[in-house]
């Protein structure tokens, strides 16, 4: 069995030219049953917008994950984070989230928010980074078959913020 230590994870800032690998990861990472994924037009409309930054992660030199975040003044929202199913549990998600939080600190963000579908395994990643649940939104996600799923809101206060 391979471990995270056997693999090289690198993260870098990207722009709209990364849309093709980002959409490949998006389609593979999100089960359409839950309606969480964005389409290419939604991504293209947001990437490059004010306060938005895109991070792409590579695992052993191949695109494996991405994170899209938006900062407004001293608050930020993690809009999306995803890792290709074939690249999971090698530390790509944690490395991306670490880089997101670094980017937040560089932008003098004090508090980071995110919405996640109730029961999404990603919650284990967020709680490992000390995010706390701060709210619930009923029927926030609409799945492929029209079924509705609740979202939970999480937030993290950045203690090492320099402002
Ligand atoms: C959530 C997600 C980004 C995690 O990516 P990943 O690269 O597998 O995460 P990591 O390997 O860095 O995991 C770090 C830690 O998070 C926790 N974790 C991650 N995925 C987990 C899972 N499916 N079940 C339980 N814990 C999990 C574990 O504590 C893990 O550490 P460990 O592997 O040493 O036990 C990935 O599963 C994914 O893309 N999911 C689909 C997209 C999605 O739902 N995104 C969130 C909403 S935007």
Automatic annotation (TrEMBL):
<dbReference type="InterPro" id="IPR050680">
    <property type="entry name" value="YpeA/RimI_acetyltransf"/>
</dbReference>
<feature type="domain" description="N-acetyltransferase">
    <location>
        <begin position="9"/>
        <end position="155"/>
    </location>
</feature>
<dbReference type="InterPro" id="IPR016181">
    <property type="entry name" value="Acyl_CoA_acyltransferase"/>
</dbReference>
<dbReference type="InterPro" id="IPR006464">
    <property type="entry name" value="AcTrfase_RimI/Ard1"/>
</dbReference>
<keyword id="KW-0963">Cytoplasm</keyword>
<comment type="similarity">
    <text>Belongs to the acetyltransferase family. RimI subfamily.</text>
</comment>
<protein>
    <submittedName>
        <fullName>Ribosomal-protein-alanine N-acetyltransferase</fullName>
    </submittedName>
</protein>
<keyword id="KW-0012">Acyltransferase</keyword>
<dbReference type="GO" id="GO:0008080">
    <property type="term" value="F:N-acetyltransferase activity"/>
</dbReference>
<dbReference type="InterPro" id="IPR000182">
    <property type="entry name" value="GNAT_dom"/>
</dbReference>
<keyword id="KW-0808">Transferase</keyword>
<dbReference type="Pfam" id="PF00583">
    <property type="entry name" value="Acetyltransf_1"/>
</dbReference>
